[in-house]
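Changelog note: in this version the structure field was regenerated for every chain. One regenerated record is shown below for reference.
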Amino acid sequence: MNGEDERTKGKNDSDIPLSPPNCLMCRHFKVTWEPAYPRACMLFGVKCTALPSAEIFLSTGKHCFAFEAKVKK
């Protein structure tokens, strides 16, 4: 399989955004009931006080690439 796994197949550096996404508009963003960690990303399993995209950037050095706009009902 040429060293590629299914998660990175077809991905390259141009697929990674240059600016952070707005977590409030993402379908993976949730508000928690925990006062210490009021915001969460359900995709990455991150709970934090800041926006999850900021935590992703601090951890990886890259902006979140998993943003999916919320579906309007």
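Spot check on this record: Confidence is low (pLDDT under 50) at residues 1-10. The helical segments are 52-60.
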